[in-house]
Please model this.
Amino acid sequence: MARIAGPLLLVAILAGLACRQTATQRALPEEVALPAPKAKGNVSVEEAIARRRSVREFAPTPLTWAEIGQLAWAAQGITEPARKLRAAPSAGALYPIEAYFATPEGLYHYLPDGHRMERLSDRDLRQNLQAAALNQVAVGQAPLVVVLAGVYERTTRKYGQRAERYVHMEVGHVGQNIQLEAVALRLGSVTIGGFPDDQVAQVLGLPKDQTPLYVIPVGHPRAG
Model:
C-alpha cells in the first residue's frame, strides 16, 4: 500500500491542478458585449482634424469598455446593418482588416457583427508588443494598443495584383478613423508602422493569412 500511495497522491495533485486550471479558464468570459456605440458626439469632424496630434506619452489610467468599444466601432463597426457596411470604406466591401486590442486584462479581437469582442488571451501583451515594435516605449506605456492586420487574400480574389494597394489604402482609412475618434473621446494616439511583421504576429498569435500593418497605442495623454 505504501508503494502505491506516492503515485496515487501525485495523480490526485495533478488532477486537482487540472480542475483548478479548467475552472479558471471557464471563469474567463469568451466574449464581451460592448456598450452601444454613439453616432453623435461633442466634437465636430473639423475640430477632431484640427486637434489630432501624435501622442507618445500616456497616463496609466485604463480605458473603459465604452471607450474601447467606440474606438472599435470607428475602426470596423457596422454603420448600415442592412448591407453590413462598415465605418471605413473598403474595395468591394470585402473588409480585409482585422482589429486586435491589447489591454492590461488581455488580448481581444473585434467582431463587428453584434459589436462584441472575443477574448483571445488573458495575458498582458503590451510589453511583448513593445519589444516586437523596435522597443518603442509608447507601445508598452499606453493602456490600449490597437493592432490592425490585413488579410490580403480576401481582396486578391477579386482584384488580383491591385489588392495590395487597396488593403493598404483601407488600413489608412481605419487608422485615421481611430485617431479622430480618440480625439473625440479626449484621448491621444500615435500610429506606428516600424516593426518586424513576423514578430508582432508571433506575439499576438495571428493566423498565417494575417499580416500586421499598424500598431496604434491609445490612452489619456500624460499631463505636462
